[in-house]
Amino acid sequence: MPSAPGPSGPKPPLSTDRPSLGVPLFILNLKAYPQRLGPGASLLGQAFEEKLHAAKVSGAIAPAAADLGVLAGALSIPVIAQHADAQGAGARTGYLVPEAIRAAGGRGSLVNHSEHPLPLAVIGTTLHRLRSLGLVAVLCARGVADARRLAAFRPPYLAVEPPELIGGTRSVSAARPTVVSRSVQAVHAISPETHVLCGAGIHTRYDVWKALALGAEGILVASAVARAEDPSAAIDELLAGFRVPDAAPG
Fold this sequence. Notes:
Elements lengths: L24 E5 L9 H17 L2 E5 L5 H7 L5 E2 L16 H6 L4 E4 L8 H13 L3 E6 L2 H7 L6 E4 L11 H4 L1 H14 L4 E5 L5 H9 L4 E4 L1 H4 L4 H10 L3 H4 L3
Parallel strand pairs: 1-2, 1-8, 3-4, 4-5, 5-6, 6-7, 7-8
């Protein structure tokens, strides 16, 4: 396993200003599900925005790259990319460079999602490029050890998502709660300012409430909403978890 970045690793941010998506935070990743491309992404984004405002919960949406500019222009909530390439703007056919994300109105990007993993050195370069442009990185980790290692980059957000639970029906907060609590402890021991999010299998208000009770400051969700027959109801269910009295088991 590669070691954490040291003095010869990626450069520090160009400024101490750290743009934020807010907390507690609800990030909705639309992936490339067919029903959430084009008009489907726009309709869901509008519903998501309205419900976030009503619930007074911070949120961001991550559409497919082709829909990034459309949603950024139509929504007031942050729109972030699902991936960013470390390369600079220029002769970069097929790359999603951070400059393109910013030019499209995006506020940041997921980095190192388990469906698009990156080498450690590339993660460092990508994070530095996003920071230098005032964009927010949501760095993804597979578990406690990965979270501890990646915390050395001091990302503004770090989402813990065991790959084996992504897209499933059991949440990491319910199936493996110590992954959440130990990841929070490990990250904050290295980077206290990093907000830890919980992902993988989040479907119910109890999943959300449990994640927050374990120390997470938000959730990263995809299939529970993006593939739901009634995505509006699915959003309502998850937002209820941010209200402790409604979500806590009796």
